[in-house]
Model the fold of this input.
Amino acid sequence: MPLKWVLHWQPNAGTTVNSQIINEVTQVVESINGIKEGRWKATITFYKPLLRAGFGGEYPRDFLGIALPEQPNKYYLIIRPLRIVLEADSTITMIMEKLQSYKQRVSLNFEGFQYQLGDFQLRVGKVLPNQSENLRGIVMEVEYLPISSMEKARQIMEEFMTIWDQAVLKRALPGHFVHMEPNFGEFGLGDQYTSQHTAVQYAAVMAQLIATVQGRN
Done:
């Protein structure tokens, strides 16, 4: 499948994310001839085990569940401390609910618009808690459609991001998008890109957003 980078917006010191920045970023996409194609949405849910009386040992653990728009029939489970990522059928969420083995602590939605730009597909979106308009962050997916090898696509992706950064600089926005590539090898993932790579990137972005919020407090 095509390779993608998932980036998060890093506000400048003393500034925060707001809806005006989202508007400006979408204008940047359109200024470099991005064609709007429609809406998209991904969701991350934090799950916590429901420990019953008499349960011993250190398992089960908290984990992240991730729903991706390009794989509507799949669900991705990540236990970050153990570097485990699993792909499951989307019905796993119903099974967990019926077994009452885990409960949802909080869900975050990543949602916005999708754009086509030559061989690239861009998704720009807000990060919002479920059933809330309290903006927690901004993310961008950059997908390069012709190539699935991360190493082969790296130079092209870096060149695209240079063009993107120049376009953002022209608008003097109070921040920039950051790409922090996880160590996919730690999760048992190779050079050929899969949806599990995307799930791991979203988990890493989530950790960065939490760190940014905590750093401001």
